[in-house]
Amino acid sequence: MAATLRARFGASDGVAEPMALEAAAMLQSMAGHCSVRRFGDRAVGIALMRSLASVALCSPSKSDLQQADIVIIDDPAKRAALGALVPDNPWVAAAPAFAVFCGNHRRQRRLHALRGHPFVNDHLDAFFNAAVDAGIVLSAFIVAAEAVGLGTCPISAIRNRAADVAGLLGLPAHVFPVAGLCVGWPDGPGVLSPRLGLAATVHVDTHDDRGLDGQIAEYDARRNAAKPYGGRRRDDLFGATADYGWSEDKARQYAQPERRDWGAFVRGIGFRLD
């Protein structure tokens, strides 16, 4: 596992090797996670998707509120319609299986109506808790899927068309899409994506980013050596500079407007974000 962590983070200093063989196998699998966008023709049955969903929903939930839903897309026409909403992600329509992970604060509000208690926490935290629950369940689903040999690829781009996705899935007020997930049997091995060094992201006692600029430069070089970008974002806007890596790609990404209607969508389905 140390070798995999070095490939991922550039170093694995201070990381203990697991002692138990069972733990080592699980942690090695998680350390070697790769997103998969090329799938074989083998189907992923609805029963298997339901099983994985049930395991994922065993994840921790804020205060046992259980504010995550999974919508498995089994209708080919609905899959095609979802794929058409995000044409830059062709694997949405092509993957053997697809699911949408949602935050659900509708149930909590229904509890107040059923039990006759006032709902006095109608603010940003209500939305945030449901979003975090959905993210935890998404991550658990990915781990469960990989445990049985499946590959996955999360699709946050469905939030680019949140209102349309909600309409297609019949999502009611206070239920919102967080991410989609392509699921299938991998057609070949995935490619490990290097990550920022652990010094940038793991802190003990106190957050410390005094070395961040150097850590970003180190990561740019290491990532370009292991997994260089195959294309560049908008050279017509930002120039065809010779130096192009993770930092330039991400800065260019967020130098252009994205999802400006997301807040309006969230408010439109009933959330207050004070």
Describe this structure in words.
It is a single chain. The chain is built from 13 helices and 4 strands. By secondary structure, it is an alpha+beta fold. The chain has 2 domains: 167 residues, NADH Oxidase (3-Layer(aba) Sandwich); 56 residues, no CATH class. Strands 1-2-4-3 form a 4-stranded antiparallel beta sheet, sandwiched between helices.
List keywords for this structure.
2 domains; 274 residues; alpha+beta; single chain; NADH Oxidase; 45% helix
Q: H/E element string?
A: HHHEHHEHHEHEHHHHH
Cα-based radius of gyration, to the nearest Å: 21 Å
Number of domains: 2
- Count helical runs: 13
At the fourth level of CATH, the homologous superfamily of the largest domain is NADH Oxidase
* N-end to C-end Cα span: 44 Å
Q: What's the story with the biggest beta sheet? A: 4 strands, antiparallel
Shape: globular
Q: Care to count the β-strands?
A: 4
- % residues in beta strands: 5-15%
Strand order, main sheet: write it out. 1-2-4-3
Helical amount = 40-55%
Kindly report the oligomeric state of this protein: single chain
Summarize the structure.
The chain has helices spanning 2-9, 21-31, 46-56, 76-85, 91-94, 106-115, 124-147, 162-169, 198-201, 212-226, 235-238, 246-253, 262-268, and strands at 68-73, 97-104, 151-155, 175-184. It is of the alpha+beta class. It is globular, with a radius of gyration of 21 Å.
